[in-house]
Amino acid sequence: MGSFSIWHWLIVIVVVMLMFGGRGKISGLMGDFAQGIKAFKKGMAEDTADASKDEPVKAIDQSATKKAETERRAESAHS
Fold first, then answer.
1. Tens-of-pLDDT digits for all 79 residues of the chain?
2. pTM for this structure?
3. Sign of dihedral through CA atoms 21, 22, 23, 24?
């Protein structure tokens, strides 16, 4: 009752060979999964490279920002 018979072990071995064998479904799925991850990483690298080439970095003029903020506060105080 505590141990498996030879038939149990044969079934387990057949199932393991089907799953992890050279043409098993799990090995094929893992290969497809790895290709998907590589494609995702490549796409992310291309997106960051394209974004850095297309748009130059814009500097924020702090004095203009502070002036606009001061004007908005003054307008809201008068309203």
1. 567 788 999 998 888 887 777 666 777 778 888 999 999 999 888 877 766 666 666 666 677 677 778 887 777 776 6
2. 0.38
3. positive
